[in-house]
Task: structure prediction
Amino acid sequence: MKNELYIFHLSETKLNDLLADLLRKYSKTNKTILVTNCLKERALMTLEYHKLIDNFSYKFYKQITDNNDKINKYSNALISLEIPPTSVLVFENEKSEINTAILAGIPFQNIISI
Result:
């Protein structure tokens, strides 16, 4: 139901202007990667609405195993792109997801809590 009604409330979403400006600036010269717990359809709607869809080099969406186990979104992206965890900068707003990033090997000093 959330996904069906989301489009009607998209205008209520708020963009973090500081982060959006950083993204727009650095996506011109760096690889930027979206790693989200959001389902693909809803994430794409939000990115398109806020005109950010072209600012990401790669996008990783919520994934669940056949057993309904949650996949570590950061580990998944790092392995898929063959990127060392020490070479990324993470912007995260949830403590549990900060812990997920640390479990993936991303150094705490590379995680910016927003």
